[in-house]
Design goal:
Length: 42
């Protein structure tokens, strides 16, 4: 990363370190978004 401070200021925007492509896109519907994961933890 050219600007590591982005990891703190924009982690869901410009600071991606890894991109993943699903081999079976039908399974994407089972993934949790940030809010659902937070709810799962509490």
């Amino acid at each position: 990363i050219d600007t590591p401070e982005l990891l703190n200021s924009d982690p869901y925007g410009e600071a991606w370190l890894v991109k993943v492509r699903a081999s079976n896109e039908s399974e994407l519907a089972e993934l949790l978004d940030a809010a659902a994961y937070e709810a799962l933890l509490h």
